[in-house]
Amino acid sequence: MSGSAGKVFAVTLGILTAIGGFVDIGDLVTNAVVGSRFGLSLAWVVVVGVGGIAVFAHMSGKVTAISGRATFEVIRERLGPRAALANLVGSMAMTLLTLTAEIGGVALALQLLSGVVPVLVVLPVALVLWMALWRVTFSWLENVAGLLGLLLLVFVVALLSLGPDWSALAGQVVQDGPDTGESGLTYAYYAVALFGAAMTPYEVFFFSSGAAEERWTSQDLWRSRLNVLVGFPLGGLLSLAIAGCAAVVLLPQGISVTSLSQVVAPVGVALGTAGVVVVAVGVLAATAGAALETALSCGYSVAQFAGWPWGKRVRPARAPQFHLVVLGAIVIGSLVLLTGVDPVMVTEFSVVFSAVALPLTYFPVLVVANDPDYVGEHTNGAVLNGVALAYLVIILAAALAAVPLMVLTRMGA
Amino acid sequence: MKTVLVAVVLLVASCAVMPDPLELAVGEAASAASSAALALEQQHRGRTTGPAARTQVDDALRQATGLARGAASATVPSVLARQQDEALEQLAVLVRHLHDATDAVGTGRAPAVAVRLRDDADALTRLEHRIGAQA
After folding, report:
1. Burial letters for A272-298: b for 16+ Cβ neighbours within 10 Å, e otherwise?
2. Cβ contact A336:A123 at 8 Å
């Protein structure tokens, strides 16, 4: 392949995997729940969330590409070991919760495909995930999971096939607050949950550590910009399609989504059996990919904080602690699921606590992205800083409101 | 001390602003009934797979069983005592129909069971509105 053709291929692959890797169990469940209860009246949150994760990922990718240091190395350097440890504990708890939800999502997807009881496949799934992390290279993991995740574009096809009343959907998008008998507090709770689903911290740990895995330099900043400015918004469109399908099929029938089987049901209504198979495989790929990313993110975070060798590019024998943390995270997530806890319930907790944990990593990254000692001449410009500061306010508001809203609405009941 | 105070205020406020738990349970049961009916209808039309339809019906059964248990143990205001009895009765019928539904997946009985589940959903929705008006 010639140099320019290779470059185009790399760019296309990066964007496609950014789209396919954007949606995980949190996006699937939360968007479908919201669509089935509020129509598209919370679509604005997806837009805000996608903008936020794009800003966050761009800043952390830039810091890594230029300084050569990943998120938790930087956080420890800037905050000192004690504050960074508290930060690590909060972020790790969040990422472990997300990993548990993703492994549960894989088990539920297998149930949709084969009828097997989820709790029976948790351990085999965990074993396969760990073997993939042990044996397969980083780029293969990222590309295969991301490309298979593109099967979820079937939600877009399904929404178009359903032939909805587009003006009614547009009316839901611009309406002010809930219009389906739901309370304003419940609407606010799901706004925070949807924001947390779009801005999951592990995505940024993975993005910035991945930049280090692929040895990005300042020459690669354009790749970061393309991925976050093209790939993430298109991934956000996919989220909106999931909510749209639920709004068109489930909301009129009074079905509030509480399970993954209901998330995929509208695709069957639109496209029949073939659609159900495609969406189930897509869910399997998306959750398995996200499980791999969250497991790696656990290893990345702890190893970066502790100063251990880390990454898939380092041979396991030279990074034993990193691989032990990854293995330990998978074991913990699996054991939680073996208690019989509902993975969808874990998912609902994980997206809300994502919103709570977000400031822990967002704020230090914003500070470092303005520090010439780390990023040289690539410090944030005035516009990016304005947007990033506006997001800091939104993130803090969401973090403060999340738990009170959870209590007040009894988890959005 | 402040944390405890905030928690108490939030709990009291949640009781004041949220619908009655019985109303919520009945509404969720109506949703479960419709979901299972949709799964049966879709499979009968050949528009979903057996495992997907069965999973959707099993999920509805598990949800309805949990809701029936919760409604039975819920303490409701005296004005809702009659509605609670009615809810328990309707939830028991729903659970029975959902057991029928699990047996009916992939058989010729699926459309008839789906009709019964749609009727259950309608009855539960009417009850939900009555509880809402009363509470």
Report:
1. bbebbbbbbbbbbbbbbbbbbbbbbbb
2. no
For testing contact with chain A, the best of B18, B47, B62 (most A CBs within 10 A): B47
Q: Do B125 and A254 touch (CB under 8 A)?
A: yes
Inter-chain contact A258–B59, Cβ cutoff 8 Å? yes
Interface check for A272 against chain B (CB to CB < 8 A): the answer is yes
For residue B56, being part of any structural domain is answered with yes
Structural domain tally of chain A?
1
Distance from C-alpha of A14 to C-alpha of A211, rounded to nearest angstrom: 12
> Residue A329 corresponds to which amino acid?
A
* Domain assignment of residue A265, yes or no: yes
Q: Which residue of A has its CA nearest to B13?
A: A408
From chain B, pick out residues whose CB is under 8 angstroms from the CB of A269: 38, 42, 47
Phi/psi at A308 (5° precision)? -85, 160
- Give the closest of B7, B18, B49 to A413, CB-based: B18
A328-385: pLDDT as tens digits: 999 999 999 999 999 999 999 999 999 999 998 899 999 999 999 999 999 999 999 9
**Tens digit of each residue's pLDDT (9 = 90 or more) over A289-308:** 999 999 999 999 999 999 99
- At B18 the pLDDT is 65
Domain containing residue A104: 3-408
In this structure, what CATH number is given to the domain that contains residue A181? 1.20.1740.10
Residue type, A108: L
Whether residue A301 lies inside any domain: the answer is yes
User: Does some domain include residue A413?
Assistant: no
Contacts of B54 in chain A (CB under 8 A): 115
Phi/psi of residue A117, nearest 5 degrees: -70, 130
- What is the C-alpha separation between A33 and A11, in angstroms, rounded? 34
CA of A116, closest CA in chain B: separation in Å?
A: 8
Q: What is the distance in angstroms between the Cα of A333 and the nearest Cα belonging to chain B?
A: 22
- Domain that residue B84 falls in: 20-134
Q: Which two tokens stand for residue B3?
A: 């944390």
Is residue B13 situated within a structural domain?
no
Specify the number of domains making up chain B: 1
Burial of residue A233 (CB within 10 Å: 0-12, 13-18, 19+) is middle
Candidates A15, A21, A16; CA nearest to A297 is: A21
Q: Are A409 and B46 in contact (CB < 8 Å)?
A: no
In sequence order, which residues have a C-beta less than 8 Å from that of residue A83 and are 6 or more positions away? none
Task: Say which of A183, A256, A273 has its CB closest to residue B46.
Answer: A273
